[in-house]
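ugh ok fine here u go
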Amino acid sequence: MEAGSIELLGVLVPDVGRLVNRMWCYFAPDVTPAVAPVPAEQGLTCIEVPEQELLAMALDGRIDHALNLAVLFLAVSKARLSAA
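structure:
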């Protein structure tokens, strides 16, 4: 996918007890399929999910990783995704 712009949602601290790494979270409002797609890394599968299905996946436990949920929360809190 290609994005005309990206917006920083926030920076998270995934493991304050042991590490000093940071996780920068971005939102791209208008993406389009890439003209020349980059091959996916081995073992990764890209899927497209509509916004409301994405949030339903978070609510019903199909998305259950805390860092993924944190990024969704940032997007909702900044009105980039609608929780309605």
